[in-house]
Amino acid sequence: MAEQKSIILSGMRPTGQLHIGHLSVLENWAALQNDFTCFYMIADWHALTSDYDDTRRLADYRRTMLLDWLAAGLDPGKASLFVQSHVKAHAELTLLLGMNVPLSWLERVPTYKDQIQQFAKQGKDLNTYGFLGYPLLMAADILLYRANLVPVGEDQGAHLEFSRELVRRFHHLYQTDVFPEPLPKYAKVASLPGTDGRKMSKSYHNDISLCAGTKEIAEKVHSMITDPARIKKTDPGHPDVCIVYQYQIIYNETEEAEIREACSAGQIGCVECKKKLSAILDAKLAPIRERRENYAQEPERLEEILREGDDNANRAAEETMVLVRRAMQI
Ligand code: TRP
Ligand code: SF4
């Protein structure tokens, strides 16, 4: 009998247009779809844990996210792409697990109190049941598919640990063995700064969108902070303090060393250096843009992709729920 493939689940909250910082994450997801049974989820219920007060753009963001995913190379023939809120079992499992999860486990998740404070500064109250339950909903997402591996950023490590503890508690309480203990699968993702050196974020306007055109890319690259001490082209530059150079390291492996040398020796101007980077980013994003445009012209195909993904997810989820309900006598 063929060995069963490991199951992978991951998700993103649909909070707006993705940018090139997300690209390495999606490339990693795309690589995994060849070897594993993959479920990739648009986590719209998770988006509500912080954006509950403005839901007007949620439908738009769901669609944008699907387009960005397909454009970046996720293959609906290989992976199931689905929407969290289309699989109601996420809510049922969250409710059932919520009966026995100690409140203290939720409160001690390291980012919890921190984020409440961060959001409070922006005038937003996250002292809600939903926000407290964020890790629980995420655990339910994972356990519902009995996922073995969860590709996430390192910032999600505590949430994964929480999921594993929940599994052990469930098995102990109901004397059963339903779920694998899910392990995080960290990929080495290059941390890409925004064009101004801060963390890349749409809200800072320092991002390069996944669907940016040639002109927009050139403008964004032009606006990047370079070595401020450099005035003339012949001034020796310091690539280590330059944002453009950080991008060259990631996207221009073949020329990066050469650029470093030329910059330090005052032999390449920032304008030329930026032109090289723009051209490379444009070449990188062109096929993504093209796929995005093609898919965008086929709304029925998009609906069909989600319908299939939702169906696959619902089927897998229901199999798990049968076991869960039996274990809990419900
Ligand atoms: N919390 C994740 C993030 O912010 C998104 C997410 C929701 C998720 N549910 C998930 C990731 C389940 C992995 C598995 O990145
Ligand atoms: Fe940065 Fe390139 Fe200018 Fe050097 S030449 S400071 S690496 S933009």
Short description:
This protein has 330 residues and is mainly alpha-helical.
Keywords:
330 residues; mainly alpha; three-stranded parallel β-sheet; two-stranded parallel ribbon; elongated; binds tryptophan; binds iron/sulfur cluster
Q: Helix and strand layout, with pairings?
A:
Blueprint: E1 7-12, H1 23-32, E2 37-42, H2 44-51, H3 58-72, E3 80-83, H4 89-98, H5 103-107, H6 111-121, H7 129-132, H8 134-144, E4 149-151, H9 157-174, E5 183-185, H10 214-222, H11 243-251, H12 253-264, H13 270-296, H14 299-328
Helix pairs in contact: 3-13, 4-8, 8-9, 10-13, 11-12, 11-13
The structure holds tryptophan and iron/sulfur cluster.
Residues 226-227, 230, 237, 239, 242, 244-245, 259, 263, 268, 270, 273-274 line the site of iron/sulfur cluster.
Please provide a written account of the structure.
With about 325 residues, this protein is mainly alpha-helical. The relative contact order is 0.14. Helix 4 packs across helix 8 (about 135-145) and helix 11 packs antiparallel against helix 12. It has helices spanning about 25-30, 45-50, 60-70, 90-100, 105, 110-120, 130, 135-145, 155-175, 215-220, 245-250, 255-265, 270-295, 300-330, and strands at about 5-10, 35-40, 80-85, 150, 185. The longest helix has 30 residues, at about 300-330. The strands form 2 sheets. Strands 1-2-3 form a 3-stranded parallel β-sheet. The chain has a two-stranded parallel sheet with strand order 4-5. The two termini are about 35 Å apart. Tryptophan binds near residues 9, 141 and 156. Tryptophan binds near residues 12 and 156.
